[in-house]
Amino acid sequence: MKRSIQCPSCLTPLGTLNYDSIPQLRCTSCQRKYGVVYGKLSQRSSMREVLLYLTAKLPRFYKRHYEFRIITPSRSLQVLKFSVPGAEDGIPVRRGDMISLLYTTQGYVLKKLIAITNHTTGSDYLLPSPVPSPGYLVATRGTVSATVFLSLLLTGANIFLLSMLSAASLLLYAKLAHTAQLTSPPLQMNVQEESRLLADQKLLTQKYSLEQRLGELKHESAANQALISQLDSLKRKMLQFDDKLYANRIRRTTSAVGILSKQMSNNQRLVSEYSRMIKMIEIEVETAQIADQLPDAENFTKTILRKLAELKHVEEYNQNLRFQLEANEEVRRMQA
């Protein structure tokens, strides 16, 4: 199923979601900005609340509360709690589905929940009306209520009676109003699913560190190659001019080239192994996003960490080679 979403205002495609989806999108047609949460629905709960029920013959009013726990491709947990009018559970998403939430934002925070898309089945659910966050609701309705309260107070209304009516109105409104709240709660090690997410997050952190280290190693190898070329050129000139006169410097230059060559060889090994580790981490994280629980996931994680520990010795050996280079007089002259 193609994981794409569209602007609910003008139906312009907003883009295709993937494992690297950005959290905010802008419609190219109407320029509206939306926040997006995309991931796998790990848990779903729904509860009906009776707002008004007098008799079977009179109209009845209900509210339905939902809680969605969504695991994103970055292995974070997002919890959405919201309510909609009505008694029936009409949102077409089930545990294990890949879904996305579309909402308007205030900065990077949810302002109003607009739509829910089930990318597994291809169905969309557009909320009857955008559901505001509690903060946005308080900011807007609270300002109006305070203005009305002060206006009535200035007209000489009874303060006690006015306060009681205001409190009752706020409680009633809070009971009837629908809100949506999106949070990212701290993960707990004693919860199996969350402990797995913590382990995956550590792997992703390791992946980002490895990617940064790859860039450093490639830059270092390029710099070493340039330095080797300079040292070789200098050595040829000294040999051509007077090999006996420059015997000590030729020896130091030869030693420096040997150290640099060892470094480059080690760097090539590190680049190759780190690239393999990055691919392994990507496979593990993406597979974990698909499967609820992998029986051998912990073994793969241990394999990755054990291999990284082995490569640490290569890094330490390279560090010793750097110290030797720093002590080489010819290298210091070239880098001065």
Automatic annotation (TrEMBL):
Keywords: Coiled coil, Membrane, Transmembrane, Transmembrane helix. The chain crosses the membrane at residues 148-174. Residues 217-244 form a coiled coil. This is SH3 domain-containing protein. The lineage of its organism: Bacteria, Bacillati, Cyanobacteriota, Cyanophyceae, Leptolyngbyales.
